[in-house]
Amino acid sequence: MSLFSIKMRASEGERHISGAERIAPTEKIGDVIAALAQRAAHHSLGEPDFINIKLERIAPEEIRRVPALAISTRPAKTIEGSFEIMKELLLAEGLTQQEAEGVIGQVRSVQVMRGAMLYDVASDRRMEPDKERGIRVTYMDAEESSTASGKNHFREALVLATKVANGPGMIAELCISDDPDYITGYFASRTAGYVRLTPLKEMGDSHGGRVFICDSRRGNIDELIKYLEKTPVIVENVPDQPC
Ligand code: PML
Questions:
Q1: FRET label pair with 209: which of 122, 173, 186, 195, CA 20 to 30 Å apart?
Q2: Per-residue model confidence as pLDDT tens digits over 93-103
Q3: pLDDT at 145 over 90
Q4: Quick check: 177 and 165 in contact, CB under 8 A?
Q5: Whether residue 112 has pLDDT greater than 70
Q6: 173, exposed or middle or buried, with CB in 10 Å at 0-12, 13-18, 19+?
Q7: Ligand 1 nearest-atom number relative to CA 182
């Protein structure tokens, strides 16, 4: 049975409107393409004038399968309370106060950036080869690839976070959604799991982004970037809802 990577991106002029991807077997390709085209055409950010749907066959032996991270939710009364929990989780991963405050400052100040920042604690440096572009995590899906046309923030984020957490030398990921209507974000790591944090921002705020925290003493950075951007990963046991 062949598997295909199916990627959709939609834009209007220079403006990015929507993007999504799936990994699906040949017999599901038609349904997945239809769902992604619907999603691209009906987006709250506007009607695109360009929709690109790209298919690539993936060799089954290239695919890595990993179980979804364990899910938990840590609600807080205030945004600052959520960032305190984030800091506590970073300290538990071995970051110093200064490092933890530094990476939280980075994720809070991300402007519009399609990819993620990659911060190395060993050198105290950002490691993205192109700082404007950031690191773009692609080639991933849940085992039960969805053919729903709406975006499920939680499910898509859990898939991405699980892929990222399994990268060589990765310590943790911080995420604030850039969707102005979505105030829940997360902290994720192999040890803590996928920890949903809410609220991480005010309703209506379109700032958001991701910071990946790694340690170049524990894994090679070039290999990590190659894994994040190129290795196909299927995540097992991904629920539709956080429960
Ligand atoms: C995004 O918008 O891409 C990030 C979504 C974060 C999802 C958090 C959750 O609901 O678990």
A1: 122
A2: 999 999 999 99
A3: no
A4: no
A5: no
A6: buried
A7: 2
For residue 112, give the 3-state DSSP assignment: coil
DSSP label of 152: -
Phi-psi region of 169 (alpha: psi -120 to 50; beta: other; left: phi over 0): left
Q: Which residues pair with 233 in a beta bridge?
A: 64, 140
- Asked whether 210 and 1 are in contact (CB, 8 A), the reply is no
User: What's the pLDDT tens digit per position in 23-54?
Assistant: 999 999 999 999 999 999 987 777 899 999 99
Most distant CA pair in the chain: distance in Å?
A: 51
Q: Strands, DSSP E only, in 13-164?
A: 15-25, 50-58, 64-67, 71-75, 117-120, 125-126, 140-142
Please tell me the residue having the least CA distance from ligand 1 atom 3: 177
Is the model's pLDDT at 115 over the cut of 80? yes
3-state secondary structure of 159: helix
Q: What is the pLDDT of residue 150?
A: 84
Q: Whose CA is nearest to atom 11 of ligand 1?
A: 154
Report CA(186)–ligand 1 centroid distance (Å). Answer: 7
Counting other chains too, the contacts that 86-91 makes at CB distance below 8 Å and 24 or more residues apart are: 86/174, 86/187, 86/197, 89/172, 89/187, 89/189, 89/192, 89/195, 90/172, 90/187, 90/213
Instruction: Give the mean model confidence (pLDDT) for residues 215-237.
Output: 97
**Cβ(167)–Cβ(233) below 8 Å:** no
**Residue whose CA lies nearest to ligand 1 atom number 9:** 154
More confident residue, 72 or 114: 72
